[in-house]
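User: I've been going back and forth on whether these two constructs are worth ordering. Before I decide, could you fold them both?

Assistant: Sure. I'll take them in the order you sent them. The first construct and its structure tokens:
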Amino acid sequence: MKKILVPTDFSKEAENALKVAAQLAKKHDCEIYLLHMLELPLQEVDALSTHSALPEAMFFMKLAHQRFEEVMASEFLDGIIVHETVKANNTFSSVIDTCHENNVDMIVMGSHGASGFKEMFIGSNAEKVVRTSDIPVLVIKNEHANFTVDNFVFASDFKKDNKETYKQAVDFAKSFNAKIHLLMVNTANSFSTTEESNKRIKAFIKDYTFDNYTINIYNDETVEKGILNFSKMIDADLIGISTHGRQGIAHFFNGSISEDLVNHAKRPVITFKI
């Protein structure tokens, strides 16, 4: 991992994500690409692209630059190479494009407020980033003065198409010397016996030499409740899930998490694209 992208709207949530990215950057000797997407009316975006910029567009660009300078002066960024990037396009595609342009290895994003978990993944720009990103996306909800991962929940159905994402999860876990808790959630609609589940998980991991893991089969009303409840039970530091492009996250967080659970989902989540 050499390059991390952090989208920012200069909010507290974005700062929380940037602080975690800074810790990762120091640990892995990475550069950070700090991306701000300007919300401009279409005619002003056109004006910027033809260099006949309207005063309003120039004003917003200048303002963004000032705010960048304030962020860049933060003590927690000392010693890190940070690239300032502004895109006059406030859509998720700006995030993906910037990643491709700069060969970014990971996106670290903030999530807003108590309803953030659901909002983060359903119908928001962030959900689209997670859905369309080819690289891991780490979603940060709170401030982490010292971002460590000792207990990492990897939730999966342990079917073959998830194998590549497990390899990425293992690499991430190794970088923190973390234990992976392999988790399969059984629900009434999708039930397999403990023996069947164990067999499936063991077959899934047999090609990997990584041995710092536990196998867990957990029963709950829904998959998402099972993941959140299990993670709470073991006090996990991070939840990892695989995403299947369009189907992935919307399928995973299908709006069935109660507000209460959403409020308690304060753990960081990392997504890996299948």
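The second construct, handled the same way:
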Amino acid sequence: MATKDVSLNKKIWQFFWRSWAIQDSWNYERQMNLGFLYGMAPTLDRCYPDESDPVQLERKKDAYRRHMAFYNCTPQTSAFVLGLSASMEEEYAEDPKSLNPDTINAMKTALMGPLSGIGDSFFQGTIRVIAFGLGVQLAQQGSLMGPILAMVISAIPSILITWFAAKIGYQGGHQYLEKLQSGNMMDKVMYVCGIVGLMSVGGMIATLIGSTTPATFSDGTLVIQDILDSIMPNMIPLALTGVMYWLVKKGVKTGWLLIICIVGGILLNVLGILA
């Protein structure tokens, strides 16, 4: 079955722009499925252009239903899945016997986990933390470059990776994925991303939580804060973060966490324990 000819660059840009809108129709039942279908729609329309043909029309409906399945993945890495799915749909449209259509959804399901792990660790756990950590520090000093720098640092990696992910996925992403999965390379990449993300969070705790103790003993000659700093700098911010993390893991609701922070902070300040 012939498909409408479209340039490679146009296809890649379609995957690029539509992957950015993949969460616009997020829902609790199937999450990003409508956004993924939106990204696939131009490809499916090109594969089955003649809706007056009952065979093409039915196969087009089947393809639309196929991409209504559950989907959830990092938007930037979803461009890779969009490109790979589009190439598989084109192959199936050209020769239905060459490919089992169930393989397309199986491929999407197999990619969601690892690509989400890499994408969330890199973009949300690393790039965003670094970008807005630098931005907040500049903004606290009254610099307009704070929010600008945060957006630029966040945008550049996202734009580059989304575009190249779409291109690699469409031009033969399954080959690259096999190489990445061979030799536990995928596990190594996710492990490194996790380490970098934790380092960034640790830096944020040390720089942005400014809690100290004014407590002293022996008429001011023994300063508790100096003792704590000699053991480990920024011990109090780390301890407070640990307490909040413990409460979150215990299932304490956000409203109660805010109340604990506000009331606890005021009370500890009045008692002279924290400053």
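Notes on the second construct follow. The first strand starts at residue 216 and ends at 217. The chain has two domains: 1-208, 216-270.
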